[in-house]
Amino acid sequence: MPRLILFNKPFGVLPQFTDKGTEGSPRPTLSQFIDVPGVYPAGRLDMDSEGLMLLTDDGRLQAQISDPKFKMPKSYLVQVEGEVTDEALAALRNCVRLKDGETLPAEAERIDEPELWPRDPPIRVRLSVPDSWLKLTIREGRNRQVRRMTAAVGFPTLRLVRWSVGDWMVEGIGQGEWREISL
Fold first, then answer.
1. Would the CA dihedral through 67, 72, 77, 81 be positive or negative?
2. 3-state secondary structure string, 51-92?
């Protein structure tokens, strides 16, 4: 039976088990949180993003989760700089033009500030610039796609938390903790 691990990745953790990119002080990796042999990330989550990462020992499941051809929905809670406009939401719901082409339409809605764990380090706060929160669901997995989409419509991302992938959610899993689920 395949194993599936839901991990709440903290900010600043590399989404891999080793750090081959730096000399001197290594950056934190998955190996500091998950000591389960034979599991590998199904998809990636940038070092400066937080939230749900899925890990599995099943190659087919890994491909189904991470390969864009399956269009598995991924939902993010996104704190952006500024008060998001209806025009920006409409643009996100249509196709946003990025340097590597247009995105697929996303589900986008304004939300109240969610109850999340504190981020370490905290985001930068500018008293003269308000911020707001969105829930954004995409069905692609381009590099830094959500950050590039919000910037393209005029609202840079301050904090990015992946909340769900398909039917799996990070809800109820503490930051830096993981849970194995039965399939």
1. positive
2. EEEEEECCHHHHHHHHCHHHCCCEEEEEEEECCCCHHHHHHH
Q: What is the pLDDT of residues 60-114, one digit of tens each?
A: 999 888 887 788 999 999 999 999 999 999 999 998 999 999 999 999 999 999 9
Q: Tell me the residue type at 47.
A: M
What CATH number has the domain bearing residue 129?
3.30.70.1560
Q: Judging by beta carbons within 10 Å of its beta carbon (0-12, 13-18, 19+), is residue 124 exposed, middle or buried?
A: exposed
- CA 31 remoteness from chain centre: 19
Same domain for 135 and 97: yes
Q: Tokens 């706060």 correspond to what residue?
A: 125
Q: Which of the residues are catalytic?
A: 46
